[in-house]
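AAA+ ATPase domain-containing protein
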Amino acid sequence: MFVGVGSSRVRDLFASAKKNAPCIIFVDEIDAIGKSRGKGGNFGGNDERESTLNQLLVEMDGFGTQEHVVVLAGTNRPDVLDPALMRPGRFDRHIAIDRPDVSGRKGIFLVHLKPLRLSSELADVSVLAQKLAVLTPGFSGADIANVCNEAALHAARKSSEYVGEINFESAIERVIAGLERKSRVLSPEEKKTVAYHEAGHAVCGWFLEHADPLLKVSIIPRGVGALGYAQYLPPDRYLLSTPQMSDRICMTLGGRVSEEIFFGTENITTGAQDDLQKITRMAFEACANYGMNTIIGPVSYGGREGAKEGWTKPFSEKTGEMLDAEVRKMITNAHLRTTELLTKHREDVEKVAKLLLEKEVITREDMIDLLGKRPFANKADDMDKWLDENRGNERSAPPPMEEPAPGSVDPAPAPMATSTKIEDYKW
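Tokens:
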């Protein structure tokens, strides 16, 4: 951008808005010009960005109450915005639009299901929308629209006149894990490794009290790098306790530990890279952000993104060394715990892996047939109970959703709020 162009365009925008009042100005991705001044380094374009931001502030201050022009802006990074933008008289009213909960997803599905020609078995659209809402935790409105579109395309490819439940299941899989890669043929050794890796995830989660309900395990390659995946159905959770965090780390480690047990530490593969990134992030956040470590103490240093924006870490070098040590200690303890669990259930891992090699995709029903029900019946959540009580009953509705009381406000989800859970095996 040439010098002065940004400021000139801002002036022209507001002048045009005043001529066409009443009107609305919406600035999308305002963090592109609205980052805190002085951040981002001195790389030439920074001065022009700050000049554009200053002009925007001037124009907003020049508005009176009789202008009949409303200024709105959207961003995914409110934490990096300049404080001057948030002062009274500017963007002082903040509306957080998070991903929809299960009730919101049901409403969105009802909208996007209307144009579809559904099969006779799906005559009750409300029941279908509720079931799909439960099967898609963490989905945005665009994701839900994509699921309905993909379901219709899948039905068309199968030369079907109507969209059925199997089409929706395939569509959800495609949106979550990517397109099935039929051209990617694994060698027998690779397929065996992937099967034991995914079996480790599945068995580990099956015998951990705070693990999310398992829906499906697959060793069919999907997407860019996923050679297999395990799909879970986490509830819309807003808080995570220390035991829940610990079980989640262990479940994510299950694939790598299974490789170590069955093939030896000298034969581990690169497939656990994504899992290792996840557990490192979770352990770091537990120690540095959530105060879940007794050595570091009840402090929060903010996320890594904030440190990147400022080009400096929000803690001293000594504290950084302590964090590294405690993160490594937390992961080491989880690794030992996972190893003990899978060693105890070694035969179960072999059963699941062999069935995976035979069928390529196994469901929760297959897991129950192989291992029995999860040994935590008294503490199972509503989704877990519904999955157990409605085996093979495709027409049953998921557990009823609690509607918020009139005027109530849902709590904002914590940074570790759960989304659709996929443990995948990647090269």
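The chain has three domains: 5-86, 102-177, 188-426.
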